[in-house]
Specification:
Layout lengths: L9 E3 L12 E3 L10 H7 L13 E5 L2 H6 L2 H12 L24 E5 L17 E4 L3 E4 L19 E3 L5 E8 L5 E13 L5 E3 L11 E2 L8 E3 L11 E5 L1 E3 L7 E8 L2 E8 L3 E5 L2 E5 L6 E3 L6 E2 L1 E2 L9 E2 L7 E2 L17 E2 L36 H6 L31 E5 L6 E5 L2 E10 L2 E6 L1 E8 L4 E11 L7 E12 L1
Parallel strand pairs: 7-31, 13-29, 20-23
Antiparallel strand pairs: 1-2, 3-4, 5-6, 8-9, 9-10, 9-30, 11-12, 14-19, 15-16, 15-25, 16-24, 17-18, 21-22, 25-26, 27-28, 27-31, 29-30
């Protein structure tokens, strides 16, 4: 005898699996005949042939058993795309369970599949905006102008959230390493005000994070004022000094400027204006003149270019400081008489005659195309163009990211709390302070996994003109092929002691 409870039955299209959705159900409608034969019941409640389960996500239409038998899986996949598109040729079923036509024992609708579980579309919490519930679980867009979204693994894509409860500035970037793997860099920058007695406090106005180099004058032809802080982490901590040598008394012609942060430091001899004087073919140094202040920039250090030779082949430059002064090529035609000498030199090796070349002395960032930083960039030849471009060459050295001059790169990492001493750059003559003791952390949530990383001290800048102390921390997380799944980036401070 015919069971009326089987008038509307749900038959699984796919076999049950241990993982993933247990089944996708097909709705059947009874025959209109008063008596249903065994053959009729077989047609109405026939189980379609099993199809291998494919773990995926998206919106799949519910189709009748006859349609599943007639079409192959590949052909059915094509019809799914066409039927799910706005304005498709097939009409979606209305809320009463019918298909809008006459005779129909064909039911059409859509069901959401998730890699974690099967989400009933009849649940009002599972319906995104613009999607209505149909029958016993089908869904379709109610407005063609608002198509059904394509969530990632059954979830809607959400914008990345950046959480920064610290008083400092935070930024992030993604870059490709030498193996073409994507890495996320979290950058945190803090600014402190420094008093004349060396007391530090968090500045009310925080210095911005510089995405690229900022030059003092023409880009590429002048020294760098601010280095690029939005980039890969450095193998060691850079230490910079921005300021001017200030004469301790009136009539000062030369003085020493010393700068030290923890285990690294440098000393330079600063002079007033000096020029070459030629008398009867003999060159001598005239000066130095008294000065009040001399900027500690690479334009005042040894270096520069010499293009005085007639043959361009004999033109040259000081690769370690092409923006300085005092450099002469081997076949130079430049006139020595009246030429300026460098204002900053190494006190252990002072210039005593023309044609001498010494190591430039500076306290600021070194240009990317300067030596020895350029040596770490690697080899960019025809082989690199054919096999590696646009990736970094195989002989690329991470020390290229360090912008501090020799002697101002910490061999490991500065931890915070190191003493800071600057002599000759303040009206008081000497500034003694220390780095703040801070251990920042970053928490990164990518999809369903997260990671907490410690941000390492990347650079330290002591600015005696603005009386500020600026610190930059960085940390990296591998996110290869998961950049679009980054959900949250948060920075936290474990401890702060002035």
């Amino acid at each position: 005898m015919w069971n009326p409870w089987r008038a509307f039955s749900m038959t699984p299209m796919w076999p049950r699996r241990r993982h993933g959705p247990s089944a996708t159900w097909v709705l059947r409608r009874p025959s209109t005949a008063s008596s249903v034969s065994s053959a009729g019941r077989k047609n109405n409640f026939e189980r379609p042939p099993p199809t291998p389960w494919r773990r995926s996500s998206g919106t799949f239409p519910i189709r009748s058993a006859s349609a599943c038998r007639e079409n192959s899986p590949r052909r059915r996949k094509r019809s799914i795309r066409k039927s799910c598109a706005p304005g498709g040729s097939r009409r979606a079923m209305d809320s009463t369970g019918g298909n809008g036509g006459s005779g129909g024992n064909r039911f059409r609708g859509t069901v959401r599949l998730s890699s974690k579980r099967w989400r009933r579309s009849g649940d009002p919490l599972s319906n995104p905006p613009g999607v209505s519930t149909i029958g016993f679980g089908g869904r379709c867009p109610t407005d063609s102008s608002r198509p059904d979204p394509s969530p990632n693994r059954g979830r809607e894509n959400k914008p990345m959230e950046v959480v920064n409860p610290t008083p400092f500035l935070m930024d992030r970037m993604v870059y490709l390493d030498r193996k073409a793997a994507e890495r996320l860099v979290v950058v945190l920058k803090g600014t402190w005000s420094v008093s004349a007695r060396g007391e530090i406090s968090v500045a009310k106005k925080q210095a911005p994070i510089h995405p690229g180099e900022e030059f003092r004058g023409e880009p590429g032809a002048s020294s760098i004022l601010h280095e690029a802080e939005l980039g890969p982490a450095k193998p060691g901590t850079d230490v910079f000094l921005n300021g001017s040598a200030m004469a301790p008394r009136t009539g000062t012609r030369s003085m020493d400027v010393s700068f030290r942060v923890g285990p690294v430091g440098r000393t330079a001899r600063v002079f007033g204006e000096r020029r070459w004087n030629t008398v009867m073919g003999i060159e001598s140094i005239e000066g130095p003149k008294p000065f009040e202040s001399v900027p500690l920039v690479y334009e005042n250090a040894f270096g520069g270019k010499d293009v005085s030779a007639e043959d361009p082949k004999h033109h040259g430059e000081e690769a370690r400081n092409p923006v300085g002064r005092g450099f002469r090529s081997e076949k130079s035609k430049a006139v020595f008489d009246g030429a300026l000498l460098p204002s900053m030199e190494d006190p252990r090796r002072l210039i005593s005659g023309p044609g001498q070349g010494f190591e430039p002395v500076g306290f600021g960032p070194v240009g990317r195309h300067w030596m020895p930083r350029r040596r770490y960039a690697g080899t960019y030849d025809a082989k690199w163009m054919d096999e590696r471009a646009p990736l970094l060459p195989e002989d690329f050295d991470d020390r290229y990211h360090n912008a501090a001059p020799a002697g101002l790169v910490a061999p490991g990492r500065l931890k915070g709390g190191e003493p800071v001493e600057v002599a000759g750059c303040t009206p008081e003559g000497r500034l003694v302070t220390h780095l703040p003791r801070i251990e920042p952390w970053a928490k990164v949530l990518v999809g369903r996994w997260g990671k907490a990383i410690r941000l390492e001290l990347d650079s330290v800048t002591v600015d005696t003109e603005a009386m500020e102390l600026r610190l930059v921390w960085k940390g990296e997380v591998p996110v290869h092929r998961e950049v679009a799944r980054i959900r949250t980036i948060a920075c936290l401070l474990e401890g702060e002691k002035a």
